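Appendix B. Extra example for self-study. Work through it before the problem class; the solution is given directly after the inputs so you can check yourself.
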Amino acid sequence: MDRLKTYRLKELDDTGLDRICRRPRIDLESLVTKVRPILEDVRRDGDAAIRRYTKKFDGIDLRDIVVDPESLDVTLPDEEKHALDIAMRNVHRFHREQMSMNLEVETMPGVTCSRVIRPIEKVGLYVPGGSAPLPSTAVMLGVPALTAGCETIILATPPDRNGSVPPAIAYVAQKIGAKKILLAGGAQAIAALAWGSESVPGVDKLFGPGNQYVTAAKMLLQNSEAMVSIDLPAGPSELLIIADETADPDFVAADLLSQAEHGPDSQVVLAAVSGFDLEELETALERQLGELPRVSIATDALAHSFIVLADRVEEALDFSNRYAPEHLILNCRNAVELMDRVEHAGSVFLGGWTPESLGDYASGTNHTLPTYGYARMYSGVSLSSFQKSITFQEATPDGLKHIGPTVETLAGMEGLDAHRLAVSRRLEKLNNG
Amino acid sequence: MDRLKTYRLKELDDTGLDRICRRPRIDLESLVTKVRPILEDVRRDGDAAIRRYTKKFDGIDLRDIVVDPESLDVTLPDEEKHALDIAMRNVHRFHREQMSMNLEVETMPGVTCSRVIRPIEKVGLYVPGGSAPLPSTAVMLGVPALTAGCETIILATPPDRNGSVPPAIAYVAQKIGAKKILLAGGAQAIAALAWGSESVPGVDKLFGPGNQYVTAAKMLLQNSEAMVSIDLPAGPSELLIIADETADPDFVAADLLSQAEHGPDSQVVLAAVSGFDLEELETALERQLGELPRVSIATDALAHSFIVLADRVEEALDFSNRYAPEHLILNCRNAVELMDRVEHAGSVFLGGWTPESLGDYASGTNHTLPTYGYARMYSGVSLSSFQKSITFQEATPDGLKHIGPTVETLAGMEGLDAHRLAVSRRLEKLNNG
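Solution. Structure tokens for the complete assembly:
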């Protein structure tokens, strides 16, 4: 294929495989240099700094940077409301099933341990703007936050050209019970959510994808005095497709392009199993590319994307596990039977009738997913991202008699006498009492 | 009380409360300046750099920095083995119950979403040394890693004076099936686990408490090209005790001291509810302090610890939630009934017979917990810390017909035509086929 670099998997050694799995490098140091002053300005000057950056970067001079969602009169076509409603319902259905039960275990006679799940109190959801507002991200972050029971949901999104909240975002903000909308984007919005300002309440945890400045801001803030955690490090979006001879090249081409149109830094990989029709794919790709409005973005993304050739689907899956893609489409025979072999991926799309778009918008799974190979150790956003757990334990006097000697021995081994004595003094009183 | 600063809660406004809740500041910038060169040396020079730093900081010249646990002949008194066995059993009992079930939800007719839990493949467990080896940390990290099914467990701990693995750590390493033990401590050990070296396999996730250099190393590495995540930011240990008139001052004094002996930077807070005998406490504290070998550490810790006076237990709990302590002892009447009111805490100890030591060693809960106020948004280490989840979705042709129009509308709203077309091209073929 002319447009995409092609490698035969069995001709690559470990070094070669690692090389093609490596994502385009982000220069974090230079990002940090740009982002840090923004974070510090917002920390110091609050609302004034946010206004200043919104004017500078978005060209909008805002008086009120924070809006009460309930005050907004949302005008949106019924068809769009309906589509958002269905997406919210599906996301709710899948996420509510993720509720972990509280737990109680008697680990020894008289010693009971329990775990209680609590919603994180204040969460900040960043919904990027860009070429168009992205209500789907508001759905993907807002619905689990509401389902988890977070008390304060603050949504941040860049203002539209009129300095207003885009109607579809406003619609979702109302449905998820967001307390406030911060009309700001980029690192300045993230900083406002983390530090708080005169009009923005600081939050406990930051969520949401964004450009590289947003990502750098989140990473810096999670290590700062702002006392804030983040959902996951998010980079440019990625898709790996495994296609065998049963895959329709038209669909594979459409899926590759759906990922490529995200941005020029998106990465698209096709693992073609022997028998898949690559010539047909090339024809389909060129034809479909010509039909796309975002053709130049997609072309740029394809320029650093590639094809790997596999003899068997297992070989393709091994490569996928090494790559650890954000999105994985298994467009091959008996896709469901391959689930067990997927070790590292954010979200997986099974069979020929499940394009990635379904998960991006409405199937019910979350679209905030680990990129860059982080699927090895991070999960996508889920209900538990909006929760924390607290453990409890209680010993009865008899329980203390059972467990006490063990604790005394272990504390003694570590030379922590006061730890030991906290038990011994009690046992003494029990035995004398 | 002479030794501890005392505040009456109702005389403090928000600013005053926030001030006493603030932990002693860590100067992260100066730490970073010290730690970064270590991380870079280890990245560049691998084993040689690790050896160099072990010689420099621990005064030990090691030939083999990595040991196979199975090769070790462990000599440990039976009583100590037995105590470690009981701790491991209890931790296993509590953590195995945390296993989340795989999940399958049909969100719309023909659209099935599922979630599968997978162990994180390679984990690195840091077990600090210090004045004595801490086998309890090996238990608290190793048992959940084993329970989760992590394939490669690497344990790192500083060598003892003879350049060997402390026997109690070796015993636990064998029991949890650790693949290797890295005999190194501090930032150099963390760097080795993250970057990997000639003899240390790089891991996916870093676990474990440690001194401020270890914490700084973990925080820097989670934002680096090492592609590694961390359990949670951990600072100096903390304890808040709520004691009412039913609390035995002897026990309260013992618990305060058990926390204070951890280190001079440990923080201890007593919220005394009206009726608790503070004079008795003072007497007990002075008497017990005199009996402690680590008296100077405990005295230093007590110097920046304090008492708050509350009229009612609810007032004390409100303060505790603001402080968000790592450990919370509820030494008061009907402690179990107060569980629902605990909003922010790492682990909670209920009633007069449950000293913190139980959870530190053997009750079954994890002792790796959020400090510094991070209990607002982080959980302690749990089974899920060693797991990740992957979501899957599958649409049947009928399912695609149901969900397709919703996705087409939403993709259209966001101006992502290729996303829309990935659905439309399939629907077209279905309708014509």
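Self-check: The mean pLDDT of chain B is 95. If your reasoning did not lead you there, revisit section 3.
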